[in-house]
Design a protein that fits this description.
By secondary structure, the protein is mostly helical. It has helices at 19-65, 85-89, 97-103, 107-126, 130-148, 170-183, 193-197, 200-204.
């Protein structure tokens, strides 16, 4: 009788499991992707912050020194010109038309307007006090929006207003950008937001962030 041996006790050969390695690799890739996306968002928001801040800072500089863009050379604030007279006296539509005419060229209006431009510009570019900057900047944009009054199709004298949109003009965009920057705390990347947030007075008063 032939005897057949069955290797019941012999070890079996197993292929190495790749599931665990694949899971670890996929997890690492997901973390890397999330990190890259976070970095991209941080850079995008920082770029928006710097550009928005420069809009306000440049307006201050041009109106102060008369670089020949919106303010003609020799007509700057340091030359005796008024930063508000030309714009406010030219308001020709809207519910505050007469009020703006009364404010045009007043010393308090000039100083308040220029300090607002300077303060918002520096704060936003530096990434500090973004909540205050958003509040001040939005108030300025709201007043300028009222001065131009986009809902009107015609000016007070009946001529076309040339408004292209009854609501969403660049003043609204700037205001929303300021609010968004403050809401996400956009001062950490390419800014002094982290240093600012560690100041004792800022830690104790969240509205200063």
């Amino acid at each position: 009788m032939a005897v057949h041996e069955h290797p019941h006790g012999s070890p079996r050969f197993h292929l190495p499991s790749l599931r665990r390695g694949r899971t670890a690799t996929a997890s690492g890739d997901a973390v890397s992707t999330l990190a890259d996306a976070h970095t991209a968002r941080a850079y995008a928001v920082a770029s928006l912050r710097l550009l928005t801040g420069f809009v306000f800072l440049w307006a201050f500089l041009d109106k102060t020194f008369g670089f020949g863009y919106a303010t003609p050379s020799g007509k700057g604030w340091i030359d005796g010109g008024s930063p508000t007279k030309g714009f406010l006296s030219g308001v020709a539509v809207g519910p505050m038309e007469s009020t703006f005419h009364e404010w045009a060229g007043d010393t308090w209006a000039d100083w308040l307007f220029m300090l607002g431009l300077l303060g918002v510009g520096i704060a936003v570019m530096a990434g500090v006090a973004l909540r205050l900057a958003a509040l001040a900047g939005t108030a300025m944009m709201a007043l300028m929006w009222i001065a131009e009054w986009p809902p009107a199709k015609h000016l007070s004298d009946g001529t076309p207003s040339m408004s292209t949109n009854p609501f969403a003009d660049y003043h609204v965009i700037y205001a929303v950008a300021l609010i968004a920057l403050a809401a996400v705390g956009a001062g950490a990347t390419w800014g002094l937001g982290k240093v600012w947030a560690q100041l004792p007075v800022v830690r104790d008063h969240a509205w200063l962030r």
